[in-house]
Amino acid sequence: MSKRVALVLGSGGARGLAHIGAIEALEDRGYMISSIAGCSMGSIIAGMYAAGQLKEAKAWFLSVDKQLILRMMDINLLSNNSLVKGERIIKELEKVVPDRPIEDLNIPCTIIASDMMSTEEVIFRSGSLFEAVRASISIPLFFKPVQIGSQLLIDGGILNPLPLHAVERQEGDLLVAMDISGKDSMPVEMEMPEPIDVDRRIAAIEAKGFDVPDGLEKQLRQLGQKVDAIRQRRAADLGRNINFFGLLDRMSDMQIQQNTLLALRLTPPDIHAVMRQYAYNTFDFDKAEQIIADGYQLMSTALDEYERAHA
User: Fold this and answer.
1) How far, in Å, CA of 164 to CA of 10, rounded?
2) Catalytic residue among 11, 40, 181, 300
3) Measured between alpha carbons, how far is 218 from 226 in angstroms, rounded to an integer?
4) What's the whole-model pTM score?
5) Those residues with Cβ within 8 angstroms of residue 49's Cβ, 6 or more apart along the chain or in another chain
6) DSSP state of 128
7) Could you confirm whether 40 is annotated as catalytic?
8) Of the residues 16, 50, 74, 198, which has the maximum number of CB atoms within 10 A of its CB?
9) Residue among 82, 114, 155, 173 flagged as catalytic
10) 281 and 302 in contact (C-beta within 8 Å)?
């Protein structure tokens, strides 16, 4: 059974910290990662691993708290297309892993971005590591797009959140995917309100010495039924709490899920570890320890399944 791995790391914000745990699980089981590819958050972990500095990266991510996240947000007040410039984040990452040419990294590394102008994938296998990473993490409307020549680059996950086709392969290696955009459903909250207790309200009125005529009692009961019906309809309205930004976010989630499923069908991996898309939020970087541990467990489970099938 081959132990040589071509590893692909998907996009998914803070869930990408699961890639660290997945890599640790592979190495603990004796697998050797001979090439790596990633997009968005997966590009950060891919680059740092290929540079031989995953331990330093892990230590840095474990030190991240909400205050540091806020300090890294260099608000782009003069822009009409992005909230954050993204330069501070790259500078912080360069403190952990100095920039290097991609072609000089320890193993072949592929980073994916999306070109808004041509609507095509852009595959980086050479040039500045952090220029490629900065392009690959450019979440639309949040990070400023990266211009390289006539290309205007944004998040690689927009076109292909799991770039299985792009990783450099060697004969006999295993194609392994750490998928952090697994198909999931939004939680449905439909707690129906308790019906209005008309009898209790009538009893309260009568306890104060007032009589409730039969006609008025009938009207109160009819009104209570109508109000109950309205409250139940509102409780069952799934769209009541989804605002404009929530709708855009959900549309993006659906697109990523479907593109991930398409990538898996077109290039099926030998080993597929998957984390549900709603397991963590995009900016849950302060939950690094738990996310890394989950990634380790998910990859360990996928390896167990593969090894049992090939025993």
Assistant:
1) 9
2) 40
3) 13
4) 0.80
5) 23, 33, 36, 57
6) B
7) yes
8) 16
9) 155
10) no
- List of long-range contacts for 266-271, beta carbons under 8 Å, 24+ apart: 266/164, 266/165, 267/164, 267/165, 267/175, 268/175, 269/8, 269/164, 269/175, 269/176, 269/177, 270/174, 270/175, 270/176, 270/306, 271/174, 271/175, 271/176, 271/177, 271/302, 271/303, 271/306
| Rounded Cα–Cα distance for residues 77 and 80 (Å) | 8
Q: Digits of tens for pLDDT over the chain (311 positions)? A: 689 999 999 998 899 999 999 999 999 999 999 999 999 999 999 999 999 999 999 999 998 876 666 666 666 656 666 566 667 777 778 888 889 999 999 999 999 999 999 999 999 999 999 999 999 988 876 778 889 999 999 999 899 999 999 999 999 999 999 999 988 766 666 666 677 787 887 788 778 777 778 777 788 788 878 887 877 777 666 666 666 666 777 777 888 889 999 999 999 999 999 999 888 988 899 899 999 999 999 999 999 999 999 98
Tokens at 6, concatenated: 């071509």
